[in-house]
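As promised in the previous annual report, we have extended the structural survey to additional targets. Below is the entry for DNA-(apurinic or apyrimidinic site) lyase.
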Amino acid sequence: MPKENQWHRLPVSLTELCIDTTLRCGQSFRWRKSGADEWSMALHGRILSLRQDRTHLHYRSIFPSSKEHLGLSTPPSSVASSPAKTSAGDDTLSLLKHYLNLSPNLGDLYRQWSTSDPHFRKTAPKFTGVRILKQDPWEALVGFICSSNNNIARISQMIDKLCREYGPLIGHLDVESEEDESQRIAFYDFPSPERLARKGVESRLRELGFGYRAKYLQQTAVMVAEERGLDWLDELRNPESTGRGDAGELVEGGREGYRKAHESLLELQGVGPKVADCVCLMGLGWGEAVPVDTHVWQIAQRDYKFGKGKHSSLTKATYDAVANKFRSMWGKEAGWAHSVLFTADLRAFSERLVAKLESQDVFEAVKVEADGAIEPVTVVKTEIVKDKRIKREFEEEERNVVEIQQNVVKKPKRRRKN
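The corresponding structure token record, generated without further manual editing, is:
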């Protein structure tokens, strides 16, 4: 039987971390709901589950039993996994603090970004607690290759298929469905580059619906597994994010280490500027990386006066101009601030930006029953105009929503029809 740890708690306020937002905003694609307000995923050889209240983050880890470990043909991730451990040797707390990037004071960062940008100051209060995760670089690379011309829900489905097909089984959890029925769900860790570099992977991924991305994934896996190694990816990390040194002062275009990492990633198959910046930001710790896709381009046009003159379309020059504009406002963590605004513009969180205008119209009417009885009724017609942008992740259309509700209030009097 797998070893199941008890729930532990860590003092973290919702303004410093909101897992319901951070885990759903397009950074990591393997977290899944495993209960009411509970999220779980397989991470570094264990199933990690999270809950949160207003003052604390609650967590537990479930390690596979030795019997389950015998069935592992590949390591759970590019970081060596841990065997089943005693509670005294459980490193989940340190892993969690690192993965959730809990060291920076988020309140201070939000205040800094709000001081330099009125638009951020207006939006941020509804989206507190958004943190940039410190993910495994290999997982981030694969995940964002899958993100090309895609949306968050479909990327998550693809990564789930990838892990089920090629990742090691870590264990199972009983998960409650929307119908309040318990289901036994398997959790798989992320496959290694060596596993995805094998022959036949491309054709199998095409069968699983990866399309043209299948070729990119296998070719990149071959380059990492057989030519460059995971140490190469690790060397591209921001030394400040790993405690190995100082990365220098921010300059236009980003620090030298960031620019080197970005250019190195562009040598891989399926990696363009946006994917490279996503990996730099969410896998390598380069906070100044600003991924600019069509979604961010819409934000830049709508809120930051891009879209005219020489920056009327999203060219390479415009991409760099948008990123430099954000870096000039928000500094070394410009990518983090940009991710808050990106999250605010996602359809999944649009309800937080709703402004309601409500009007009521009350009038009398009569209802004729089947037996000929006439029943007076009062009809209350309520019209609610919700001023919000309804948009799928990568659609341009925005519109207001009008909801009409009509309630009938019966009066007690009944009269026979003459």
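Confidence is low (pLDDT under 50) at residues 67-87, 385-404. The CA atoms of residues 194 and 225 lie 5 Å apart. These points will be discussed at the next consortium meeting with the crystallography subgroup.
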